From TrEMBL:
Belongs to the aldehyde dehydrogenase family. One of its GO terms (cellular component) is cytoplasm. PROSITE patterns: ALDEHYDE_DEHYDR_CYS, ALDEHYDE_DEHYDR_GLU. Keywords: NAD, Oxidoreductase. This is Aldehyde dehydrogenase. It comes from Sus scrofa. InterPro entries: Ald_DH/histidinol_DH (IPR016161), Ald_DH_C (IPR016163), Ald_DH_CS_CYS (IPR016160), Ald_DH_CS_GLU (IPR029510), Ald_DH_N (IPR016162), Aldehyde_DH_dom (IPR015590), Aldehyde_DH_NAD(P) (IPR012394).
Length: 466
């Protein structure tokens, strides 16, 4: 069954989605989702879903990714709850017409931007933060007054089940549906016309989604991935850098779109960083990381095999152990890595951190700029001028100086990629705006025709002075 939460909506024999989509469209046309009260009710329902099913979600995340309770709480549940609370607090302010400045010809008029819901929007989510990356965009879509089709990842199976079976009970099913499936079903779904598509996933599938959307001229937000560089300057405290880099590289077992993908530093800094990284890894995960409750597992066998293949690049300096019986890969650091090796060709998305050597900042900046624009970029230095130079001379979706991760915890900052790492952004009010059409509105007086008549032909040189 490809449609969850759609009880009473029989699927057609040829197209399992048609009836559901038509139902949602009818709801949108009826205007039901537009009032602030309705939107707030949906958001409160979403909040109740999180509160009442916290344990269920934590169990599902543990089954899918061996996520620790701490990680589930911080990076999946609390962050989604904060997003809901923010939207509830600001909903009416965000919905207000935005007055704009006027020119001479419109001085007497009313000019404003109205934030209108698009209509029927599709959200497609990945498996690595299967609650967060499903609910965060959903908050924006519902706050903006849309009807929503949600397609969770079929790979994080336990979480998908909770989202399909439990979440719809907390939302108005006339405006919301969960659709299940992998590439084939999603491909079928994408043949339908939506008014906006919000996709989080790989650049490869991002292209498939955008191609399908183009057939209907549907606007897309693409939250993609890539290789996030992390420059470490000679002028740094190696232990502080190692703590921060190790924490975020191995958080969620490295399966994080904004994790530092590789380090660029001089051979001297590498020599100082290696013992510091080893010390951080041992402190975080113990002498046997496999026994640590804080280290997760690789999502499935396919990704495990892919990552195990990458362990043969360069030379293993830390970790390197793996066991396919429980898809375990130790927190690993690789050195002597060549730019041409597989580990530098694809997004790693696992607990493997290659270090590449550069001779100074200029070479690091060149290295970064030769590649696709990343989703995130990190620079560590005690010298703020170095951090500012990396920021000024590169481009990326987001940037964080002297840490990883933290920039995306601020809902006052937009989160999104640039170039190959994506287009559009969300979080906080940016989500509301992403899921709203910004309608240009000018209301004029039906009178005052004598003044306005100046623009009509026949034109004389006198008119041109206006
Ligand atoms: P993915 O692209 O394989 O899958 C994402 C979604 O697309 C899933 O729901 C999946 O069912 C669907 N899908 C897969 N193949 C499809 C096809 N052929 N046609 C239509 N739909 C299809 O990504 P993933 O493996 O789930 O997630 C990992 C990727 O996501 C990484 O590249 C990572 O960087 C990226 N990511 C980005 C962000 C971000 O916020 N920018 C966040 C998390 C993950």
């Amino acid at each position: 069954n490809t449609v969850a939460g759609g009880a009473g909506w029989p699927a057609g024999p040829m197209d399992p989605f048609a009836d559901t989509l038509q139902r949602l469209r009818e709801t949108f046309s009826s205007g039901r989702t537009r009032p602030a009260e309705f939107r707030a009710t949906q958001l409160k329902g979403l909040g109740r879903f999180l509160q009442e099913n916290k344990q269920l979600l934590q169990e599902a995340l543990a089954q899918d990714l061996h996520k620790s309770t701490f990680e589930s709480q911080v990076s999946e549940i609390s962050i989604s709850q904060s997003e809901i609370n923010l939207a509830l607090r600001n909903l009416r302010a965000w919905m207000k017409d935005e007055k704009v400045s006027k020119n001479l010809a419109t001085q007497l008029d009313s000019a404003f931007i109205r934030k209108e819901p698009f209509g029927l929007v599709l959200i497609i989510a990945p498996w690595n933060y299967p609650v967060n990356l499903t609910l965060m965009p959903l908050v924006g879509a519902l706050a903006a007054g849309n009807c929503v089709v949600l397609k969770p990842s079929e790979i994080s199976k336990s979480t998908e089940k909770v989202l399909a079976e439990v979440l719809p009970r907390y939302l108005d099913q006339s405006c919301f549906a969960v659709v299940l499936g992998g590439p084939e079903e999603t491909g079928q779904l994408l043949e339908h016309k939506f008014d906006h598509i919000f996709f989080t996933g790989s650049p490869r599938v991002g292209k498939i989604v955008m191609t399908a959307a183009a057939k209907h001229l549907t606007p897309v937000t693409l939250e993609l991935g890539g290789k996030n560089p992390c420059y470490v300057d000679d002028n740094c405290d190696p232990q502080t850098v190692a703590n921060r880099v190790a924490w975020f590289r191995y958080f969620n077992t490295g399966q994080t779109c904004v994790a530092p993908d590789y380090i660029l530093c001089s051979p001297e800094t590498q020599a100082r960083l290696l013992p510091a990284l080893q010390s951080a890894i041992t402190r975080f995960y113990g002498d046997d990381p496999r026994a640590s409750p804080d280290l997760g597992r690789i999502i499935n066998h396919k990704h495990f095999q892919r990552l195990r293949g990458l362990l043969s690049c360069g030379r293993v300096a830390i970790g390197g152990q793996s066991d396919d019986s429980d898809r375990y890969i130790a927190p690993t650091v690789l050195v002597d890595v060549q730019e041409t090796e597989p580990v530098m060709q694809e997004e790693i998305f696992g607990p493997i951190l290659p270090i590449l050597n550069v001779r100074g900042l200029d070479e690091a900046i060149d290295f970064i700029n030769r590649r696709e624009k990343p989703l995130a970029l990190y620079a560590f230095s005690n010298n703020s001028q170095v951090v500012k130079r990396v920021l000024a001379q590169t481009s990326s979706g987001g940037f964080c100086g002297n840490d990883g991760f933290m920039h995306m915890t601020l809902s006052s900052l937009p989160f999104g990629g640039v170039g190959a790492s994506g287009m559009g952004n969300y979080h906080g009010k940016f989500s509301f705006d992403t899921f709203s059409h910004h309608r240009t509105c000018l209301l004029r007086s039906p009178g005052l025709e004598k003044i306005y008549a100046i623009r009509y032909p026949p034109h004389s040189p006198r008119n041109l002075r206006v």
